[in-house]
Structures are given as structure tokens and as C-alpha cells.
Amino acid sequence: MEHNDVKKTVQDQFGRAASAYVESDTHAHGTDLALLVEWLAPAGTALALDIATGGGHVAKSLAPYVQSVFATDLTKSMLEAAREHITQEKLHNVQFVLADAESLPFLDQTFDIVTCRIAAHHFPNPNAFVEEVSRVLKPGGAFLFIDNIAPEEPHLASFLNEFERLRDNGHVRCLSLSEWTQLMESTGLHVEKQRVRKKPFEFRPWVRRMAQSEHQIEEVERFFVNATAEQRQYFDLTFANGQIASFRTDECMMLCKKAP
């Protein structure tokens, strides 16, 4: 699929799912939201950028600790849902900008902090995204990155990306930890701290957030049921009455600093 077609699919998918992502327990209440503020330790004068803000959860978490946050997203209705959500919280230092993560509408060396959480697997060109992050960061600035990652083993990575694509037409690819590390370092972003954890999902809420039909849900479920013993073990698949109940994937949280 061409890059522009992928982005149009992402806009369509997230346009339909905007309210679901604002309310999603995984996105709204993850322990990583408090941890990212702790890792960043932002100064009150900091200017922050949250790329692919989704429901606005990172922007909302950062807003009390910085001077201003620019929350961007490719999908207008998603950005509108985030603005409504954040406005209800009486936070007035968040600006909302429609923007492509791979072509940001900001000048070089604008931000002290850049964040991107649980979104980059939808980006057609991860290298362009990381280059843009490095470009808009001030020297010495911090980039806090969170996303689902693929196992280093190719056959397990293929399994992960296939079930994500079956559920979500806008999914491009989860990269491995080594791939992300190489991308960061190649664009002048030094990895200072990282954490990899197993993130649990209940199958029904996860699949219904993006699937567009019962047929699509059944297709994803069949894929899980046909998993090999190795795949079942790695992704900690659990079943009830022959149906998938839950699973776990790897998630990476990474703090990078741009050279002074």
C-alpha cells in the first residue's frame, strides 16, 4: 500500500474510533503516563510536543508540568475528541495542531520535549518520523517514546504484525527494539533509559476498538486459535471455551536525548 493510502486508511480508522481511544483503559490509565512525567522531569518553562496525541492522554499528563504542550494528530476528529477531553479537565496550556508525524509543521529546534505514545506502528516511514523528532528538538532536548514492539525473532514478529493488521487496517508494522534503537542513534538521539514490559490485553475490548465487522473479529480470533505452541507461549495466549480470552505483547518505553 502506498504511503498516502496508508495515511488515508489511518484517518478513516481513527476517525471512527476517536471516542473509543479517549475512553480506552489501556490508553487512558496506563501506568506509563505517570512514569513518563517522572522520566522527563520537565521544567516549568518547557515547550512540549506530543506527536499522534490520539485521545490526548500524554498531553494531559504533561500539561500541569510545562509551559505549553502542542498536541498533534493526523486525524481531525481524533484531535477534536482530544481537545474536548482536555478542555473538560480545565487545562488551558494545550494547543491542538493537525499534523503528519513524518512532516511536522514546526521550525528546527523548537521544543524542549517531544513525546509519542502507542502510535508509531501506524507510521509508513518510521525513519522520517524519527528524523523529524530530532529536527524539531532543541539541542539537549528529550524524546520520550512508547510503542508496542516486535520480538527480535522474525517468525514471532510476523505473527504479531499479522494479527495487528487483521484487526486494524491502518497498522503498518511494529519494529523490534534493536530497530528502534538503531533509528534513534542514527538521527542523533542517544538512548539514555529504556524499559520493556509485557502488556496485557483482553481480547474483546482490544479487537472491537478497531475491527469494523463481526466477520473481521472472527478472522482475528481464528488466527489466534491456530497459533503454534511457541506463539501461544510467547504471547501468553489464554483461551476460554475455545475462544481467545487474552494475550500479551511487548511494549518499549525509551528516553532519548539529543546531543547538546
TrEMBL record:
Which PANTHER family does the record associate with it?
METHYLTRANSF_11 DOMAIN-CONTAINING PROTEIN, METHYLTRANSFERASE TYPE 11 DOMAIN-CONTAINING PROTEIN
Q: Which family does it belong to?
A: Belongs to the methyltransferase superfamily.
Q: What is the phylogenetic placement of the source species in the record?
A: Bacteria, Bacillati, Bacillota, Bacilli, Bacillales
Molecular function in Gene Ontology: methyltransferase activity
Superkingdom of source: Bacteria
Question: InterPro entries per the record?
Answer: Diverse_substrate_MTase, Methyltransf_11, SAM-dependent_MTases_sf
Q: Keywords in UniProt for this one?
A: Methyltransferase, Transferase
What's any GO biological process attached to this entry?
A: methylation
Protein name, entry field: Methyltransferase domain-containing protein
Q: Which residues form the Methyltransferase type domain?
A: 49-145
Q: Which organism is it from?
A: Alicyclobacillus fastidiosus
Question: A Pfam family matched by this chain, by name?
Answer: Methyltransf_11
